[in-house]
């Protein structure tokens, strides 16, 4: 692993609610280098909150604390709001799950990609358009000129997600946080979106945090996997070694998923051990 | 083997004039009594539309559909409706948010004028492993898995022969999915039900079904057995691609897909 771009140590996210405090993320530590790091977990495990708190995008009532949270040597915890704005979108980008809700429905998609360029750099409209077209081609959209003039409702889900990725990549970030970027996509389209992300990591040296609920996908796509349960990382291993995972929760998840290549008479049902909520491994 | 459900040349169209589109285009399939048949395909391929047409939610279809030899064309009798019940994808949207589980389950009993509502509701809850404690709760007091159990209980109340399952677990976490799939497998065995199971997840369909129909753009491109799929014996290139993509990420495969699409574009 190369020198980490992002270092997170002992991250906590708490919410004050009328029914008492909810401790959503409980002491999460990890590093991300120029590699694909997968964070897997079920709904409510804290994986999304972990991703969002890196960019200070957590809800207002969330209290985020950590021993250390550094991006390329810069302390993200101490950084001013102004400083964070300079990093967010420029050096760290985020791709969300569903392009349907992330694109502006009344603006042509090309203009949205171009806007991502002009928002960060000075440049003429023509230049922004040029860059946007170039970016759309890079995420393998055939005929970018035609797509440039379409509205979000005129593009398919896979195309929409590629447009989102183009928009996030136009500032050439060093780190990309992708929160379930392919969950709303069909399997064959998913493959192509993943290939684009894959190329960015291997060719441009991007760091990728890939948040997903799909253990199998993460095992085949990422370099390293962090498994989260109830706000903690219960397992951290190389993706290729996920099948030999040790934590009973990871093993339980693997056993409860039906598989095409290995038929099972009956699916295992996960028995949640209250002890998993305690000591982090 | 007698076919419980026989569909012949089914077509469903939406829209008028220029915007007219064929969501289901000449699908023929038969599901035998006691069989579990899977329909797989990507979004928009028409798999759910078929289920909705069978259940009577989509009118205006052409072709022929028969359940136990009785045509579904024209007005259906309550008895015909009882034979076929459906479980929907989204357990958050398919239960009335301001009705208790008791009211939700009582509705089909009242509509069909059945006796012993109390006994039926209690038995239905037991069957899906929820127990009586859940009877007077509201949907928001239940987890996604529990809600889907309520939806299954509601479908089973009328003692159907054919259960239409529209992505019953895709809104659930893997560990909850396994519980619901096990429940569905048990119920089918105990009550010798017939399933028509729609999913975009090949692994789920392979686990639940013995035969599979693969759909694309409204057409049934291939019918095969799960055993053949597992052995890699799918014939249609689209099915093969679907199987490969379901296995996980592979760099070489992603490139091959892009090339294939290019080819398809070139030969309309």
Give short descriptive properties of this protein.
heterodimer, A: 281 residues, alpha/beta, 6-stranded mixed beta sheet, 24% strand, B: 268 residues, 25% strand
Q: Your description of this structure?
A:
The complex is a heterodimer of chains A (281) and B (268). With 281 residues, chain A is α/β, with parallel strands linked by helices. In chain A, 34% of the residues lie in helices and 24% in strands. In chain A, the strands form 2 sheets. Chain A has a 6-stranded mixed β-sheet with strand order 7-8-9-3-10-11, with helices on both faces. In chain A, a hairpin with a 2-residue loop joins strand 5 and strand 6. In chain A, helix 4 crosses helix 5, helix 4 runs parallel beside helix 7 and helix 5 crosses helix 7. Chain A is globular. Chain A starts with 5 loop residues before the first strand and ends in a 25-residue tail after the last helix. With 268 residues, chain B is of the alpha/beta class. Chain B has 10 helices and 10 strands. In chain B, strands 6-7-8-3-9-10 form a 6-stranded mixed β-sheet, with helices on both faces. The mean pLDDT of chain B is 91. At the A-B interface, helix 8, helix 9 and helix 10 of A face helix 6, helix 7, helix 9 and helix 10 of B.
Blueprint (SSEs and pairs):
The complex is a heterodimer of chains A (281) and B (268).
Chain A: E1 6-17, E2 20-32, E3 36-40, H1 47-54, E4 62-65, E5 68-71, E6 74-75, H2 81-87, E7 92-95, H3 99-102, H4 109-118, H5 125-138, H6 144-148, H7 157-169, E8 175-179, H8 187-204, E9 207-212, H9 215-221, E10 224-229, E11 232-238, H10 248-256
Chain B: E1 3-14, E2 21-32, E3 36-40, H1 47-55, E4 61-67, E5 70-71, H2 78-83, E6 84-87, H3 101-111, H4 117-127, H5 144-156, E7 162-166, H6 174-191, E8 194-199, H7 202-208, E9 211-216, E10 219-225, H8 226-230, H9 237-246, H10 251-266
Parallel strand pairs in B: 3-8, 3-9, 6-7, 7-8
Antiparallel strand pairs in B: 1-2, 1-4, 4-5, 9-10
């Amino acid at each position: 692993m190369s020198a980490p771009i992002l270092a997170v140590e002992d991250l906590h996210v708490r919410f004050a609610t009328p029914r008492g405090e909810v401790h959503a993320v409980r002491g999460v530590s990890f590093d991300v280098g120029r590699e694909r790091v997968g964070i897997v977990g079920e709904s409510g495990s804290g994986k999304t909150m972990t991703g969002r708190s890196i960019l200070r995008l957590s809800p207002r009532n969330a209290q985020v604390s950590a021993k250390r949270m550094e991006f390329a040597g810069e302390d993200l915890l101490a950084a001013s709001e102004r400083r964070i704005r300079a990093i967010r979108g420029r050096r760290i980008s985020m791709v969300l799950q569903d392009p349907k809700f992330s694109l502006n429905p009344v603006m042509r998609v090309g203009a949205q990609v171009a806007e991502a360029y002009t928002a960060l750099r000075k440049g003429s409209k023509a230049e922004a358009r040029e860059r946007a077209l170039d970016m759309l081609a890079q995420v393998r959209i055939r005929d970018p000129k035609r797509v440039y003039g379409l509205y979000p409702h005129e593009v398919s889900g896979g195309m929409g997600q590629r447009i989102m990725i183009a928009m996030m990549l136009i500032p050439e970030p060093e780190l990309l946080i992708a929160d379930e970027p392919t969950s709303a996509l069909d399997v064959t389209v998913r493959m192509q979106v993943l290939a684009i992300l894959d190329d960015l990591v291997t060719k441009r040296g991007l760091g990728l945090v890939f948040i997903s609920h799909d253990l199998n996908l993460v095992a085949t796509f990422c370099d390293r996997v962090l498994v989260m349960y109830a706000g903690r990382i219960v397992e951290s291993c190389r993706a290729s070694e996920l099948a030999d995972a040790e934590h009973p929760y990871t093993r339980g998840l693997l056993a409860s998923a039906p598989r095409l290549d290995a038929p099972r008479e009956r699916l295992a049902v996960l028995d949640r051990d209250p002890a998993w909520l305690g000591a982090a491994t | 083997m007698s076919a419980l459900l026989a569909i012949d040349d089914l077509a469903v169209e939406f829209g008028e004039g220029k915007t007219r589109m064929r969501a289901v285009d000449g699908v023929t399939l038969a599901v035998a009594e006691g069989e579990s048949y899977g329909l797989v395909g990507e979004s928009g391929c028409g798999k759910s539309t078929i289920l909705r047409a069978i259940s009577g939610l989509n009118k205006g279809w052409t072709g022929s559909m028969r359940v136990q030899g009785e045509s579904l064309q024209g007005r259906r009798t309550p008895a015909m409706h009882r034979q076929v019940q459906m479980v929907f994808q989204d357990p958050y949207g398919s239960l009335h948010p301001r009705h208790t589980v008791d009211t939700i389950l009582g509705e089909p009993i009242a509509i069909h004028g059945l006796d012993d509502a109390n006994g039926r509701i209690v038995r239905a809850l037991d069957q899906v492993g929820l127990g009586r404690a859940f009877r007077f709760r509201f949907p928001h007091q239940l987890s996604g898995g529990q809600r889907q159990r309520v939806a299954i209980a509601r479908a089973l109340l009328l003692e159907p022969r054919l259960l239409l399952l529209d992505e019953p677990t895709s809104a659930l976490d893997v560990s909850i999915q396994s519980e619901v799939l096990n429940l569905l497998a048990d119920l089918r065995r105990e009550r010798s039900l017939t399933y028509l199971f729609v999913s975009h997840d090949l692994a789920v369909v392979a686990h639940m079904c013995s035969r599979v129909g693969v759909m694309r753009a409204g057409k049934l491109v291939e019918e095969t057995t799960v055993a053949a799929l597992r052995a890699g014996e799918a014939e249609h290139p689209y099915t093969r691609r679907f199987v490969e993509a379901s296995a996980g990420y592979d760099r070489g495969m992603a490139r091959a897909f892009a090339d294939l699409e290019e080819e398809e574009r070139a030969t309309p």
